[in-house]
Amino acid sequence: MELRTLRVFVEVVRQGGFSSAAKALFSTQPTVSKAVKQLEDELGVPLLDRIGHRSQLTAAGEIVYRRALTLLAEREGLVAELDDLRGLKRGSLRLGLPPLGASTLFAPLFAIFRARYPGIDIRLTEHGSKRLEEMLLEGEVELAGSLIPVREVFEAQPVRREPLMVVLPRAHPLAGAESIGIAALASSPFILFEGGFALNQVLEDACARNGFAPQVAARSGQIDFVVELAGAGLGIAFLPRTIAEQRATPSVVLTRLDEPGTEWQMALVWRQGSYLSHAARAWLDLAREVYGPEGSG
């Protein structure tokens, strides 16, 4: 059984089909289908039920998928340990960062890290924090950016803490307020980010504590588009203060969200008890050097 074949099988499950998996793997559908069929023949059991263009795991497939994730994570750990034998002269850092805040907080670290460790290849993955946490558990990345608080299966090092700003269209009745509690926004349509963004959960939980569910007018993964939608009067949006000030346009007004439990607290997160390569530890040390042991804010 080859790890390459297991990796193909795992991608088919993640993508929900052979065509999407082939695109993700930069391969062809016949090659992907052949690899999965080879794995099924080797194990002597069907792993997937093919339903139209979709594929679902069989009972045997569930077991193989779970074990495959473990084996692939162990392989990455093995490579990382061997890289560590060479110190920081060679190797790679598998890093996951969310679109919200990555350019502001982490872009400066890339330049410093590259200057100090030119032989380390940073393999960057960008997703919302929820998806990045899944990738941490599956061993696909060593470190990821996510919002505090995190689940008990993770450890975290704070990076940045700051309030959320409400992005209001200039014609909004509350546009002149110095600060706003979230209850005062119950009648305003919300413009949220796509489903994988942890900030959505922070806002939805705050609304629930105040006895309402937000009316969602739109969702997007693009910060500038979210701001433009707010400026056009579609609804209100929420951004961390630094990002809001950088992306604000003349068509919006920024007002501080005065609501307990809604501070934006970005951290670097890793799987509890996992092996961290020298490169990962060097990245954490650099973040601590730049932002302090408790993060900045």
From TrEMBL:
The keyword rRNA-binding does not apply. Pfam families: HTH_1, LysR_substrate. Keywords: DNA-binding, Transcription, Transcription regulation. GO terms for cellular component: cytosol. The keyword Transcription applies. Residues 1-58 form the HTH lysR-type domain. InterPro entries: HTH-type_LysR_regulators, LysR_HTH_N, LysR_subst-bd, WH-like_DNA-bd_sf, WH_DNA-bd_sf. One of its GO terms (molecular function) is DNA-binding transcription factor activity. PANTHER family: HTH-TYPE TRANSCRIPTIONAL REGULATOR YBHD (PTHR30419), NITROGEN ASSIMILATION TRANSCRIPTIONAL ACTIVATOR-RELATED (PTHR30419:SF8). Belongs to the LysR transcriptional regulatory family. This is LysR family transcriptional regulator. It comes from Xanthobacter autotrophicus.
